[in-house]
Design a protein that fits this description.
The chain is built from 12 helices and 9 strands. Helix 7 runs parallel beside helix 10. The chain has a 7-stranded parallel beta sheet with strand order 1-2-3-4-5-6-7. The chain has a two-stranded antiparallel sheet with strand order 8-9. With about 300 residues, the protein is α/β, with parallel strands linked by helices. The chain is globular.
């Protein structure tokens, strides 16, 4: 049972101790956050073809087969700024071959799809568009990341946030996120408010929860462009202790008319596979969603949430 279902305080009001418990794999409300099983899809995974991950694809496939995760999308990083670590790290042909061969090997036990997570920056939008026109993926995630010269870097963030309002603090990040949402280039927008991780402890998830207006333009842009919103569960194993974004933002997306929702663990290590995915599905269900959006190449489809989520 999630905190929301139990009627206890939402994740945005967790104490630091509670967040540490979540990072260790235990939700203070009593749920095993990390041990997700018997789910139809984890649509955000990084293998050793991402520079910040170390997992061979067969390790994910074996874990999915063992834990009843019926389908997985491999979404290794694609960067366009030469200063970013995934720039030219692994070429398209290599990434596609590794995933397609694994899909053949595991076809009778788990479905494996070839996707990518593209780092979005407005100055590289034409390059991203060209890449997607020339290369076919089953599924694409567009995300804004914290780059090597970002004001959110560990050696800069304290000075950057000092004396600033939350609006001014998040503006550089959220303006890029809104542009990504408006671009219509991607199937889904990854970890919308990932910046929460970098501004802690100077600003907390509770501060974000108290300013829902920050999200409004982004959510409307997603709906206008037909882009999905991702419930990214990596925040459950990181200091924010909640999904990116949290449940109230997902609920607002639906209230505004959003219908395309995805969910992924964003794993970069083997022990993070499907971490918190049960909670992510619960966030979706509590917000009123009964199915997830996905794409398998030319086929766009909806994946029903399991019956245990009250669907």
């Amino acid at each position: 049972m999630t905190e929301a279902a139990a009627g206890t305080k939402p994740a945005t009001t967790r104490t630091r101790a509670a967040t540490q418990e979540v990072a260790a794999g235990h939700d203070p409300a009593g749920a095993e956050v990390g041990q997700s099983r018997d789910l139809p899809l984890d649509s955000h995974l990084h293998t050793d073809l991402s520079p910040d991950a170390d997992v061979p694809i067969d390790v994910y496939a074996a874990a999915a087969a063992d834990r009843g995760i019926a389908e997985i999308a491999i979404t290794d990083h694609v960067d366009f700024d030469p200063r970013y670590p995934a720039y030219a790290f692994a070429d398209f042909a290599t990434r596609e071959r590794v995933v397609r061969e694994a899909a053949d090997r595991w076809a009778d036990r788990v479905a494996i799809r070839f996707g990518c997570e593209l780092t979005y920056e407005r100055r590289y939008e034409d390059d991203i568009r060209d890449h997607l026109a020339r290369h076919r993926y089953d599924f694409t995630i567009g995300s804004v990341h914290v780059g090597p010269f970002s004001p959110y870097g560990t050696d800069r963030v304290a000075a950057f946030v000092a004396g600033q309002t939350l609006v001014n603090i998040v503006r550089p990040y959220f303006e890029e996120v809104e542009a990504a949402a408006r671009s219509g280039l991607f199937d889904t927008l990854g970890h919308l408010d990932f910046v929460k991780r970098y501004v802690m402890p100077y600003r907390t998830p509770a501060d974000f929860a108290a300013a829902p207006e920050l999200y409004e333009a982004i959510l409307r842009a997603l709906i206008d462009s037909g882009t999905g919103l991702e419930v990214n569960t990596s925040g459950l194993r990181q200091t924010p202790g909640e999904t990116y974004p949290a449940q109230p933002v997902v609920a607002r997306f639906r209230e505004l008319g959003g219908r395309a929702l995805t969910a992924g663990s964003d794993a970069h290590r083997a022990d993070a596979f499907a971490f918190g995915l049960e909670e992510g599905y619960r966030v979706a269900a509590t917000a009123g969603f009964r199915r997830l959006a996905f794409r398998r190449g030319a086929e766009r489809l909806h994946v029903p949430l399991p019956a245990r989520f009250g669907t």
